From TrEMBL:
Protein name as it appears in the record: Cell division protein FtsL
Natural source organism: Alkalicoccobacillus porphyridii
InterPro entries: Cell_div_FtsL, FtsL/DivIC
Transmembrane segments: 35-56
Pfam families documented for this protein: DivIC
Main location: membrane
Keyword Protein biosynthesis belongs to the record: no
Isomerase recorded as keyword: no
Length: 117
């Protein structure tokens, strides 16, 4: 017991407790990555603009095409009516009657037959 009394009561040394600060590290976006993202966003915006422009161009051309088809159909019906009038006007009996009204006579020696080829 003596040995124990000689030594002063020493308390066990404890290391000063430091609180560990836990850092939550965020994944930072670097400047290069920001530039790449900005470039890609710009490219996508330009491409979407081109797609819309092409769609509008195709739509307007399609509209013009339909309008021209309507004009062509209308003109074809007008031409058909005019061709019918030409056929009626070139009837030989009609021509003979008009010639007789104007005092012309049919002379078989002066008649030439013309064939359409």
């Amino acid at each position: 017991m003596l040995a124990r009394q000689v030594q002063p009561n020493q308390q066990p040394r404890t290391a000063p407790q430091t609180q560990k600060v836990i850092r939550t590290s965020r994944a930072r976006i670097t400047v290069g990555e920001k530039m790449i993202a900005l470039f890609l966003a710009t490219v996508m915006l330009v491409l979407s603009g081109l797609i819309v422009h092409n769609y509008v161009s195709i739509y307007s051309l399609n509209k013009e095409n339909h309008e021209m088809q309507a004009v062509i159909t209308n003109q074809a019906s007008i031409n058909e009516g005019l061709n019918l009038q030409v056929v009626e006007a070139s009837d030989p009996d009609r021509l003979f009657s008009i010639a007789k009204e104007n005092g012309f006579e049919l002379n078989a020696e002066n008649v030439e037959v013309v064939n359409k080829n």
